[in-house]
Amino acid sequence: MALQDKYKQLTDAALAAGITDLNVVEQGGVLYVDGTAPSGAVKDQLWDIFGQIDPNFATGDLILNVNVSTAAAVTKVKVTTDSSNLNIRKGPGTDQPIVGKAAHGEVITLVSQSNAQWWLVRTDDGEEGYAFTQYLTPEG
Amino acid sequence: MKINKFLLAIMLSAAVAVVSCKPKDADVKAAVEKSISANAALAGVVVDVKDGVATLSGQIKDEADRAAAAALVKGIKGVKSVTDNITVAPVITNIPVVSATDEAISAGLRDLTKDLSTVKYAVKDGVLTLTGEISKLKNVAFTQAYMALKPVKVERTGLIVK
């Protein structure tokens, strides 16, 4: 119960912001909070609160897993690598062959978010494959 | 005089009409409350009736109950229309979490750390141990990503955030 109190501000905000299928459970000294956010902004808001309660997320007593609803209608994503090109791969994983590249800053089409870590994308040149979600930022 | 009597009659009947209207709303309200109280799922519903318009408010468990309440009240004699201001209580479930396998967590970390050479990881029995160092900026996205891999627990006291 102590952890639920520690992160009450976060779960309250999740409810107020319209997180659907919110699941909160405490197991073995870890609080698990799962749910689906109506938008990327709501997800960011929750992570901001998490960072305020637990600076740098260093404690490890909360596992927050909030996905953005696929109904949020993201169709364009921007390549936000540090500076390099982004590899587009045949399948989801760095062990998969590279089938194309997208330039840093390029805006490409998002085809599918069915895999949380690897989104299926298509460049304007028609190259289609999986790119690492970390380096993609939804547009608009 | 005749006219006066006539006016008096009109005024009287108007007064009766006004008076008879009031108990009518109260009667309808009572009837609505009675049928709502017969359904335990609608316990949180509050009713107000004015000129035959039933306004429902309060909080209930789900959308189905909400629709049921509106349908129920609509069918009650004397209700002309229903204004539905009922809110559905937000739901938190407490279902035990099923964590991912060591293989799945490791595969995710391999991808995540490809461009984070300063971060080392180990996975055993679902527990992810992180060591090394990471920039404050990259820590946010990295944390979001490894938590989405559904580890049982994360030990990251050995990971320095710079």
What is the topology?
The complex is a heterodimer of chains A (about 140) and B (about 160).
Chain A (H helix, E strand, L loop, with lengths): L1 H5 L1 H9 L3 E8 L2 E8 L2 H14 L8 E7 L7 E4 L6 E4 L8 E5 L4 E6 L5 E5 L5 E5 L3 E3 L2
Parallel strand pairs in A: 2-3
Antiparallel strand pairs in A: 1-2, 4-7, 4-10, 5-6, 7-8, 8-9
Helix pairs in contact in A: 2-3
Chain B lengths: L1 H36 L7 E6 L2 E8 L2 H12 L6 E4 L2 E2 L3 E2 L8 H11 L6 E6 L2 E8 L1 H12 L5 E9 L1
Parallel strand pairs in B: 2-3, 2-4, 7-8
Antiparallel strand pairs in B: 1-2, 6-7
| Known CATH architecture of the largest domain in chain A | 2-Layer Sandwich
* Strand numbers in spatial order across the main sheet of chain A: 9-8-7-4-10
Can you tell me the CATH superfamily of the largest domain in chain A?
Answer: Beta Polymerase, domain 2
Task: Name the helicity range of chain A.
Answer: 10-25%
Number of helices of chain A: 3
Distance between the termini of chain B: 99 Å
Order of helices and strands of chain A: HHEEHEEEEEEEE
Task: Note the overall shape of chain A.
Answer: elongated
Number of strands of chain B: 8
Mean pLDDT of chain B: 87
Please write the CATH class name of the largest domain in chain B.
Answer: Alpha Beta
Describe the sheet with the most strands of chain A. Answer: 5 strands, antiparallel
> How many domains in all of chain B?
2
Strand content of chain A: 35-45%
CATH class of the largest domain in chain A: Alpha Beta
Catalogue the unreliable spans of chain A.
none
Note the run of SSEs of chain B as H and E. HEEHEEEHEEHE
How many separate structural domains of chain A?
2
CATH topology of the largest domain in chain B: Histidine-containing Protein, Chain: A
Helix content of chain B: 40-55%
Radius of gyration of chain B: 33 Å
